[in-house]
Write a structure and sequence with these properties.
The protein contains 8 helices and 19 strands. Strand 14 and strand 15 form a beta hairpin. The strands form 4 sheets. An 8-stranded antiparallel β-sheet has the order 12-13-14-15-16-17-18-19, with no helix packed on it. Strands 2-1-4-3 form a 4-stranded mixed β-sheet. By secondary structure, it is of the alpha+beta class. The protein starts with a helix and ends in a 13-residue tail after the last strand. Helix 2 packs across helix 4.
Length: about 425
């Protein structure tokens, strides 16, 4: 009967010039997996497809069968199969309403994991490895979960300095428990740990403006040192924190001819200079006065000539007798050590009252990636102007300040942070 209805439907398919949808898909014999899950496994690409001839219909049926088979296999039904399928019109005698597909499924037994054994491991014990796996004895075998477990174990080996380790499925042996009438699987994994990797070369790509040595000193990775995944992650974070780059990719690892690891770091330069300003002219209020220019200028230079040096300038003039000038400069890695020397100069002329001048410098030492010790020295001078006609008196004064402090900065990027404080 199924063969006849399929033949009649295919005859209808070949007799119309336009396509008709797959209106309905039904499943029979699926006691363990719900029809909704099978429809999700098939996917909308097939469910919403329209067919115009027998070739397109057979293609849709074959793709649906493969999706169903894969879903059963990934959920532990290793011997599930589709016995047959039937095609018919969704509404009898009305082909415009589309087709109906019926799949007749034999599920078989779900196979559970009876044991997981690992061979070839010397650095980590079998217990240390299996304790990191989501797959465990008593669970139904899920292919995706097992692959994720292998990826997790490879990441663990990478943390221990073995980024070239390989793990393969050596065997999955099924057997039938005659007592419980249950399918059991013995999983055997094979580990090829490989040599403990050393860093043989560090390659920086994409640094069109920033000097390579600026990036290398922030990486703080030593050629010849043993590879360590955590140190590499921290090194990438330090480069990203500079704020000179739009993006810093995850480091890529390549095996060199001498079994050492080549570390490749790709960066994308960001705009590190900015200028912003506005200028205006104020005409004289009367014949005894003269006009003057007012406005402000902000100049920011980060990573000057690719050296990592920073400088800023701010000038602001609001009235003829009031103006502010601020200049700052940062010299990083003084004498090749993680010492930053910064200097600031500021001067403000306040009407005809006073002129305030401030100069300061600080020397900061990086103790860790996040913690710095900072020593500060500053000098301030206030010089009064002609005060014959002022209400308040400003005295000539000088102030010298010294200080020692610590800072904690956990931001991932100094310019546009996404995390940290």
């Amino acid at each position: 009967m199924r063969t006849i209805s399929t033949f009649l439907l295919l005859t209808l398919c070949s007799s119309y010039s336009h396509a008709f949808p797959l209106a309905k898909i039904l499943f029979h014999g699926n006691a363990h997996i719900a029809s909704g899950q099978l429809l999700d496994a098939i996917g909308e690409n097939i469910l919403k497809r329209s067919v115009a001839n027998r070739s397109e219909l057979f293609l849709a049926v074959e793709q649906a069968k493969q999706s169903i088979q894969k879903h059963y296999s990934s959920n532990g039904f290793l011997y599930a199969r589709i016995d047959s399928f039937q095609t018919s019109l969704a509404v009898p005698n009305d082909s415009s309403q589309g087709f109906q597909l019926d799949f007749f499924i034999f599920e078989g037994l779900p196979y559970r994991i009876s044991s997981i054994s690992i061979r070839g491991n010397t650095i980590l014990t079998e217990h240390e490895l299996t304790s990191k796996m989501a797959s465990a004895p008593g669970q139904i075998l899920n292919e995706t979960t097992l692959q994720n477990d292998i990826s997790r174990l490879l990441a663990l080996y990478e943390q221990y300095g073995y980024p070239l380790a390989k793990i393969s499925i050596e065997a999955i042996t099924p057997r039938l428990d005659t007592t419980s009438r249950e399918g059991l699987l013995a999983i055997q994994l094979r580990v090829a740990e490989g040599p403990r990797a050393k860093i043989g070369k560090i390659v920086i790509l994409g640094n069109e403006n920033t000097n390579e040595n600026v990036i290398m000193r922030e990486l703080a990775l030593r050629v010849g040192a043993y590879y360590n995944a955590d140190e590499l992650t921290a090194a990438r974070a330090r480069v990203e924190r500079l704020g000179f780059f739009e993006s810093v990719a995850e480091p890529e690892l390549y095996l060199d001819h001498d079994s050492s690891v080549v570390v490749v770091l790709r960066v994308k330069e960001a705009s590190t200079s900015a200028i912003d300003g506005v200028l205006g002219y104020n005409p004289p209020a009367n014949a005894t006065e003269s006009g003057y220019l007012s406005g402000l200028v902000d100049l920011s230079l980060r990573d000057i000539s690719g050296t990592g040096r920073n400088a800023t300038l701010h000038y602001d003039r609001t009235t003829a007798s009031t103006q502010t000038l601020q200049i700052s400069y940062l010299e990083p890695w003084l004498f090749g050590y993680p010492l930053n020397l910064a200097g600031d100069f500021a001067q403000r002329q306040q009407d005809s009252t006073y002129t305030q001048t401030t100069a300061s410098s600080n020397l900061s030492l990086a103790l860790t990636q996040d913690i710095r010790i900072i020593g500060t020295l500053s000098y301030e001078r206030v010089i009064p102007s002609n005060q014959d006609s002022t209400t308040f008196t400003t005295y000539d004064s000088r102030t010298i300040t010294t200080g020692l402090s610590a800072s904690i900065d956990t931001r991932d990027n100094s310019i546009a942070p996404r995390s940290g404080v």
